[in-house]
Design goal:
Rossmann fold; single chain; 13 strands; alpha/beta; 2 domains
Length: about 300
């Protein structure tokens, strides 16, 4: 995170559980320089986020070991226990957790009516994939809300925030290169960059024009998958013109080009001042290296990885 935005040293969230539900989470963070003290704030949960957290509470409960039973007047009693709160590390060893780990605090009611708390920590590798995806959704929600709070509280200029926190890269392409687009989109998502990719964003019955306009509005950069026939496609041409218009309006908006089996001379001259890269096809042996270069280009980093 330090290379392209606010330098977080630690970042995570805590959610307190009451009867299997919660109305807010607490977000904690610490910068690696400057404002080094810990900061935190509480955030009210939106309904869809709340329902996903409730799924995680049930999962957390399943990870707990039931406390030992006890007898009262010869009757076997199973102590009451539940999840008191759930902790999540997104960056660094916050709350004493391993990086990207989870903490589950168990609340137990003893035979004397007292309550005690026990802790269970899980590494990323110990979290099932379906629940890891749920954690990532909450992480992203916390990240987006934190960026807004930090701008307001510490008066940090918006252009110091990584643009991909709240927005995505808009893909423009013609039919026939879907496999290339999907491989590239999957790679960028694995690097925590959101992607507007037509088959993933436009559903049955949706207005194509409306969805594309929303996609362009909420993008921080564009990527054109440029083929020899790209400008002959009506939709591709419209997307191309929209990307160029946005680029003229917003000096921070960038448009990268992935040339597929076509020469640099095929690109309009005024599009050559940012970055463009070349592959022959989806089976190009250099494809993985090219996707890494595109990732760096979209983040406005030097295209070549600097030596250690």
């Amino acid at each position: 995170m330090e290379d392209y935005g606010i330098p977080f040293k630690e970042f995570g969230w805590i959610c307190y559980v009451v009867d299997g539900t919660s109305s807010e989470i607490r977000i904690d963070y610490k910068f690696s320089s400057g404002l080094t003290e810990s900061n935190s704030f509480n955030l009210k949960l939106e309904r869809d986020i709340k329902s996903k957290l409730e799924q995680l509470f049930k999962w957390a409960y399943s990870k707990l070991t039931p406390p030992n039973s006890f007898k009262i007047l010869g009757k076997e009693i199973q102590p009451y226990y539940d999840v008191e709160h759930l902790l999540r590390s997104i960056i660094g060893p916050i709350f004493g957790l391993p990086n990207e780990g989870v903490g589950i605090y168990k609340r137990v009611k003893t035979k004397r009516g007292e309550r005690r708390v026990e802790r269970k920590y899980l590494k990323k590798e110990e979290i099932e994939e379906e629940f890891l995806e749920l954690f990532k959704i909450i992480d992203e929600y916390a990240w987006e809300k934190t960026s807004e709070k930090i701008i307001e509280e510490f008066d940090i200029p918006k252009d110091t925030l990584p643009p991909y926190i709240n927005k995505h890269v808009f893909f423009a392409y013609r039919c026939g290169v879907e496999k290339i687009a999907e491989k590239l989109a999957t790679y960028l998502i694995s690097k925590n960059i959101k992607v507007w990719y037509f088959p993933w964003k436009v559903g049955w019955g949706d207005s194509i024009t409306t969805e594309e306009e929303k996609g362009l509005k909420n993008s921080f950069a564009g990527l054109i998958i440029f083929t020899p026939d790209f400008l002959e496609g009506r939709t591709a041409h419209e997307e191309y013109r929209a990307l160029i218009a946005k680029r003229k309006e917003d000096p921070h908006f960038k448009v990268g080009i992935l040339r597929v089996n076509c020469g640099r001379e095929d690109i309009p001259e005024f599009m050559k001042d940012y970055f463009d890269v070349f592959i022959k096809s989806e089976d190009d042996p250099d494809f993985d290296n090219i996707t890494h270069i595109i990732w760096r280009g979209l983040l406005m980093l030097p295209l070549e990885t600097p030596p250690d």
